[in-house]
Amino acid sequence: MYIYIYTHQLAQAHQPTTNPAARPQLKVKEAVVSADEMVWWIYVVVAVLLSIGREGCRVEGEDVVTYDGRSLIINGQRKILFSGSIHYPRSTPQMWPYLIAKAKEGGVDVIQTYVFWNLHEPQPGQYDFSGRYDLVKFMKEIQAQGLYACLRIGPYIESEWTYGGFPFWLHDVPGIVYRTDNEPFKYYMQNFTTKIVNLMKSEGLYASQGGPIILSQIENEYQNIEAAFHEKGAAYVRWAAKMAVDLGTGVPWVMCKQTDAPDPVINTCNGMRCGETFGGPNSPNKPSMWTENWTSFYQVYGGEPNIRSAQDIAFHVALFIAKKGSYINYYMYHGGTNFGRTASAYVITSYYDQAPLDEYGLLRQPKWGHLKELHAVIKNCSSPLLEGVQTNFSIGQFQQAYVFEEGSAGCVAFLVNNDSTNNATLQFRNNSFELLPKSISILPDCQNIIFNTAKVKTQPNKRITTSSKMFDAVDSWEEFRDVIPNFLDTSLQANSLLEHMNTTKDGSDYLWYTLSFQPNSSCTEPVLHIESLGHVVHSYINNKFVEAGHGSHNIKGFTMDIPIDLIDGMNNVSILSVMVGLPDSGPFLESRFAGLTKVEIQCSETELYDFTNYTWGYQVGLLGEKLQVYKEENLDEVEWSSEIDHSANQSLTWYKTVFDAPTGDDPIALNLSSMGKGEVWVNGQSIGRYWVSFLTSKGVPSQTLYHVPRAFLKPSGNLLIVLEELNGDPLHISLHTISVADFDSQTPYYHLPR
After folding, report:
1. Rounded to 5 degrees, what are φ and ψ at 634?
2. Is this entry keyworded Glycoprotein (predicted)?
3. pLDDT at position 456, please?
4. How far apart are CA 341 and CA 594, in angstroms?
5. What span, in angstroms and rounded, lies between the C-alpha atoms of 428 and 391?
6. Is the peptide bond before 332 cis (omega within 30 degrees of 0)?
7. What is the Cα–Cα distance from 597 to 610, expressed in whole angstroms?
8. Is 310 helix (H, G, I), strand (E, B) or coil?
9. Could you give the CA distance from residue 285 to residue 674 in angstroms, rounded to a whole number?
10. How far is residue 320's CA from residue 290's CA, in Å, rounded to a whole number?
11. CA–CA gap between residue 94 and residue 88 (Å, rounded)
């Protein structure tokens, strides 16, 4: 067993005082004790705890969190814990109390969140913990509702978050190689990790201080890339674990998907079927934990939603518990919204909308209710599950029994039918049972089935969208067409095609590549050939839009061949390269290439203009971005026109209008199904990118409804700014309220304010 031993006069620290701030700071050291030393340490710890008082480990709100091979142990009690991921920047502070309350009502004990480095340290040494980034406020709300927290510091997080959560300024640190035994990277990683740990300590948020945080995570699914770094990968794992433990949080650390996690760090499982795929802890002294049980999956532009049934989730939760699992986190319990430009490459703005709480925080039934029922059943069996002896044996060709017996105190059985098509009739303890296909029946007394994972009692619900406003009045809109730069307009020039991300520094999705050239008079029927490792390209010849092209999440590069018209004399070629989020995973993230890789104009079989090593002019971002015309105070920086033109050759247009907030408390969304691709701001705050023109294999957009949090709104006079890259029609944008109702009803549920 690994015991986190308090030093600095433990007993004295718990003496009564009228000034809690004067209490000696408890520092934590991690001590790995051998079998020979175990009895002595147990004697010392028990003696100290008994001297503290009748409450045992809990003293004035402080929790002792340890673990053994069975579970986490909090204040001397083993725990089966259900956890739910809710990411604070993917919602608003006004939503946090409701989301956490609904998770608690659903039987969740722990709220799990990543920490988002690029939000909190946008520039080296400059920190931001305000508004949606207020991590301390989020932790305190968890505590106020009586739940625990798991803080996944990373600071690499992936999470379908742009650049995996890294701030892009890391890219420019000399000699840096991410996530390996590299001194520059380790310096900044340790600096940020320490910053977060010290912030939590300063607010008393670790369980060892009476706070809610019972677990922390360092790194994230590193084993996926560890082999790419050879021996430096293993060295980095050892360093990261030691660095984290040495920070003295007083609670255990975990590494997910990391079978070589060094003691005392716990290796955990991520995935949809950890009851089947997890090889188990790498030490008999560590509990079996599941840090990411994917309740659906992230969705990309051009991709269909991943629908995971309540039955499937419940089956694998029950199987993991039957195999001695004791901690299960739902990723996500509430997914929320990728506001602004925070989504990673090709990921849509809505995140895990199929979670038990949907993007707006509304119940996703039957998923929420079925899991709530499962949680209650398992918790009622916690004593034999945690203290009993487990046996497992075959009860049929595709059937298995897992039985936990605690002497005469209790017995619980899990009867598993792995046959996905047929019912199974079987005998267990002199009783006959019929199991549904691909299901697990739970018998809390080893006699009577009280829950079956495939038998859903919760009624399904449906989402209701109620139109609140149509933006169809022509005179309510104004537009500003962004400027197409030419070579002579640029101040940054180079004799090659520059890499997109290194040039923009993630300050914008957009990078202009411009050139001027004069073709020979013999150039007839010219074709512009473009090869790109970016995501989207918009091409212009002599300031006129020609064509747009794009790749996809699964196709990393794309080619365009575009017939064009050239004029006699000098021609201007302007190509806009667009990134729809930065990559978030894989080794050597700092070395990725994006942007244009080849540009040619073919005039004939013998006449070819190759501009790959030509003199190019560059401009980062759009003029409207630079002037921040999405903010009310900057509207006068450009000239807006009341003549709305959304013809086929219209592109890069900013539209503005105002609207009043719908009455009531229902969540709000914009329907952008008439638009093409771009970004939307409400009162200066970006609600995210949209890409409605990128259709799925079924011929429909991946997302049309875009969440507008009520916290972004005023009662009236709300400023709506839409940046449209293509030729979408703003006159068919509409505003809706969102609610849910039973599947066979039109009566919405009541829900709390947003």
Report:
1. -110, 5
2. yes
3. 97
4. 17
5. 13
6. yes
7. 11
8. helix
9. 58
10. 8
11. 11
Q: What is the pLDDT, as a whole number, of residue 645?
A: 76
Any residues with CB less than 8 A from the CB of 634 and at least 6 apart, and which? 627, 628
Residues in CB range of 235: below 8 A, 6 or more apart: 181
> Count of CB atoms within 10 A of residue 389's CB?
10
Q: Which helix (H) or strand (E) holds 623?
A: helix 623-627
Among candidate residues 271, 152, 237, 131, the one with its CA nearest the CA of residue 200: 152
How many residues does the structure list for the chain? 754
Angle between helices 96-105 and 135-144 (to 10 degrees): 40
Cβ-based neighbour number of residue 36 at 10 Å: 7
Query: What are the tokens at 74?
Result: 């909090």
The upper half-sphere exposure of residue 527, i.e. CA atoms within 13 Å in the direction of its Cβ, equals 10
Give the H or E element holding residue 41. helix 35-52
683-708 burial, b at 16+ Cβ within 10 Å, e below that, comes to: bebbbbbbbbbbeeeeeebbbbbbbb
DSSP secondary structure letter of residue 439: E
Asked if 304 contacts 698 with a C-beta cutoff of 8 angstroms, the reply is yes
- Cβ atoms 372, 380 nearer than 8 A: no
Nearest by Cα to 585 from 238, 255, 223:
223
Nearest to 729 by CA among 537, 467, 468, 474: 474
Helices of type H across 366-465: 367-380, 382-387
**CB 472, CB 731: distance < 8 Å:** yes
SS3 content of the chain, % helix, strand, coil (to 5): 25, 30, 45
Mean pLDDT by runs of 10 across the 754 residues of the chain is 37 36 37 38 32 33 93 98 98 98 98 98 98 98 98 98 98 98 98 98 98 98 98 98 98 98 98 98 98 98 96 98 98 98 98 98 98 98 96 97 90 98 95 97 97 97 97 96 97 98 98 96 91 98 96 95 95 98 98 98 90 97 98 98 77 97 97 98 98 97 98 98 96 98 71 44
Report the candidate in 382, 249, 274, 250 with the shortest Cα–Cα distance to residue 329. Answer: 274
Strand ranges for 395-438 from DSSP E: 399-405, 411-417, 424-428, 431-435
Instruction: Decide the pairing of beta strands 148-154 and 213-218.
Output: parallel
**What 3-state DSSP class applies to 649?**
coil
Contact 133, 119 (CB under 8 A): yes
Active site residues: 221, 292
Place of tokens 């430009």: 341
CB-based contact 392:401 (threshold 8 Å): yes
User: What's the pLDDT score for residue 639?
Assistant: 97
Token look-up 């142990």 returns 73
Residue 259, number of CB atoms within 10 A of its CB: 14
**Which uninterrupted H or E stretch holds 597?**
strand 596-602
d(CA 731, CA 647): 13
Burial class (CB in 10 A: 0-12, 13-18, 19+), 172: exposed
Angle at 707 between CA 704 and CA 713, to 5 degrees: 135
Q: Which residues contact 288 (CB under 8 A, 6 or more apart)?
A: 269, 278, 280, 281, 320, 323, 324, 325, 326, 327
pTM: 0.91
C-alpha distances out from residue 470 to 467, 473, 659, Å: 8, 8, 10
What's the gap between Cα 262 and its chain centre?
26
Burial environment of residue 639 by CB neighbours within 10 A (0 to 12, 13 to 18, 19 or more):
exposed
Nearest to 243 by CA among 150, 154, 167, 127: 154
Do the Cβ atoms of 503 and 588 come closer than 8 Å?
Answer: no
Residues 6+ apart with CB under 8 A from 519: 526, 566, 571, 601, 603, 609
